[in-house]
Amino acid sequence: MSVLSSILANSTRPPQPFILLQSSAAQSSLPVLNSFISKAKGTVVLACFLYSPKIFIKQEGVQQQIDLVDCREYVLEYHDEADDWKDNVFKSLQKLDSSSPLTVVIDSIETLLSNASNSVCSVYAFLSEILGTVQSHKGHSRLIIHGVGSSPLTSLLSQPSFSSTMVHIISHPPVLLTHLSRSYSLPPPPLTPPERFWSVFSPIADREHEGESLVFGSDGEGDGGDEIILELVVRGTGEGRRRAVERDLEGWKAESGLIGPCELKFLQSLGNVWTRKGTLDEATPDPTKNVSFNLKLTPEQQQSRAQVPLPYVHDGAPNLNTVGIGIPEGSILYDPDSADDVDDDDPDEDLDI
């Protein structure tokens, strides 16, 4: 089972009470968020600030109770109560039984921040209180926050001070990996060592305009359709006090009835990445091919070459590495050249000193 599959099934140990989903203009995380909502246990409190609730609530096959808090009509300049959206969320939480599992979904933090007059401290305190309420519920309860793009809140929410355990899921278009493979010769692991791959991937992925250019630019290749590249940053999977941080890439596809995570090699949009790697390995030129002479030796030729005595100057001299001989280790044996002026006499004997 992949890491994301275990997270969706809520079977990780220890459980992950905080999930941070990050979309971009080039790639949305809504399919992943929908999967989290459909697999949630117990009651789901869905606070919509950006997208319509119809995107998340599917009438067919609903197995959990969904308490909707629609905050899309809230406009700061024309609303009487400044904190009315907060009160609506807290009212939905207060009437729930703490003995049952709870999943709180907030979409999205950028709109939520604008509703709070861009007060980062106010929204951070609000989300901290929501997380505390979620953790007070028994069972596998979660706070799932969805955001579009990077915001001042994203870096704060990903810190251990907000939650010691966290799953940060960042969606990327598949063309980003195609671009790395084609322009930098860096296919994803295991074809490239992880240390080398992440050192190039992370800076490029952080520049959102590059991903948008690869998808929507004049030379853009478009999105991957129903296929997504998911960057997973999981913190808190270690035992005891050890808080390990794991980083991995997984695929997401929705076709032929299969909706969920998968390995990157099963994504059709990345087919050229794997074939290109194999083609490059096979197309490596052989420098000894198509030359006018033979650079290889037969076994008989190699044996004859090994029997040729080398013209060592001190052939037959004692082995300098042998202990107990007259010549100490580190001695320099020098044969003078015919042009050398070797004279044992004092060269300065004619000087009157």
SSE arrangement:
Elements (H helix, E strand, L loop, with lengths): L2 H6 L9 E6 L6 H10 L3 E6 L16 E6 L13 H11 L7 E6 L1 H7 L4 H17 L5 E7 L3 H6 L8 E7 L2 H10 L9 H13 L1 H9 L11 E8 L9 E11 L2 E5 L8 H12 L16 H8 L47
Parallel strand pairs: 1-5, 1-6, 2-3, 2-4, 4-5
Antiparallel strand pairs: 6-7, 7-8, 8-9
Helix pairs in contact: 7-10
Could you walk me through the main structural features you see in this protein, from its secondary elements to its overall organization?
The protein is α/β, with parallel strands linked by helices and 353 residues long. It has one domain (3-282): Rossmann fold. Helices cover 31% and strands 18% of the residues. The chain has eleven helices and nine strands. The chain has helices spanning 3-8, 30-39, 84-94, 109-115, 120-136, 152-157, 175-184, 194-206, 208-216, 271-282, 299-306, and strands spanning 18-23, 43-48, 65-70, 102-107, 142-148, 166-172, 228-235, 245-255, 258-262. The protein has a nine-stranded mixed β-sheet, with helices on both faces. A hairpin with a 2-residue loop joins strand 8 (245-255) and strand 9 (258-262). The longest helix is centred in the middle third of the chain and has 17 residues, at 120-136. The chain is elongated and about 110 Å long. The termini are far apart. The model has no long low-confidence stretch (mean pLDDT 81).
